[in-house]
Fold this protein.
Amino acid sequence: MRPSVLATRATFPDIADRLHPYFDVEDNPHDTIWSPAELRQRLQGKHGVMSTGSERIDAALLDACPQLKAVCNVGVGYNNVDVAACTARGVLVTNTPDVLTETTADYGFALMMATARRIAESQDFVRRGEWNKPGIHDMFVGGDVHGATLGILGMGRIGRAIARRGALGFGMRVIYHNRSQLPAEAEAEFGARYVDKATLLKEADHLVLVLPYSPQSHHAIGAAELAQMKPSATLTNIARGGIVDDAALAEALRAGTIAAAGLDVFEGEPAIHPGLLGLPNALLTPHIGSASVQTRRAMAALTIDNLIAALGFGPQAGKPPTPVNPEVLAAR
Ligand code: 8YV
C-alpha cells in the first residue's frame, strides 16, 4: 500500500506533482481553511502532512492520527507545531529556513522604509482626492532611514540580512539584542553593536522585530517597552503575531508614544485588533514577508523534498534537508 499525505493549503501544482510518484495525495485546491475537527478527520490514515502556519499541530491531534510520521511545515517559523509532542511520538518536523532569508529581509526593509516615510498613508490621501495643493513643510514628513539607528530584536539569519541592508546600503548604525551575541567577525560585517534590550528600545530610530515566537517572546513588546522608545521611532514586525501586544501598540500609536508601525503579522491573524485598523500611522499587510514567486516556490519545493525524504523515498531518503527535530531520525 502506498503511503498517503495531506497538503493542507493550495500550492504550486507543478511542484506538488513531485509527490505523486511516491504517495496518494489529498490536497486542498480551493484553499479552504479547515477547522481543527476537519483537519483531524482529513489526517486520518495519513503518513505525512505538508502544513502551514494556519494549522495547529498539537499532542491531541497527533494522538488522533497515530500513522502520522512527518510534519513538513511551509515556513521557517514552526510555532504552530508542538515539536516536543512530535518528538515524543517519533514524528519528524521540518521547516524551510534559508530559502526565504533574503526575500523576507527585503520585505522587512521595505516595510520599515514605507513606515518611516509614510508611503501607505500618503497613497491613501492621494486616492481620496485630497491632494489639492503642493505640500512643503507639513505634508507627510517622516523620519529618515539613511544614517538613522536601526535596532534589530532577534539576530538570526533574517535579522543579519536586514542589518546588512541597513549598514551597507543606507549607512545606518546597527544595534541589536538577541539571546546570544554574534561572533566578532559577524558583527564587524555590518558594524553591529550588541546592546541590552533597554538600550535597544531607547536608541533605535527604527526597530525591526525578527525573533521567533515562543512563550518567552510573548508580548516582548508591550506598553512598558513602547514607553521606552523615542516618540519619533518606528516599529516593524515581520516576525510573529503575539510578540507585540497589539492592544498596547494601538494605544501607543494613537497617543503618539511612537511615530508609526509597519506590521505584517498580528495576534490572532487573519483577525486584526480593531484599534489598529483605523490608525493612519499603522501600515498593515497580510503576512506576506516571504511572498515573492521565487521564494514561495522554493519554500514549497523544500517542503516537498523534506516530505519525500522524511517518509523514506527519493534521492535523500531518510535524510530530509531541513529537520527541526533530527533526533527523531537518529532514533529510527
Ligand atoms: C509563511 C512565515 O508565510 O516562514 C515563516 O515563518 O511566517 C512565512 O514565510 C508562513 O509560515 C506560512 O506557513
In short: The chain has a mean pLDDT of 97.
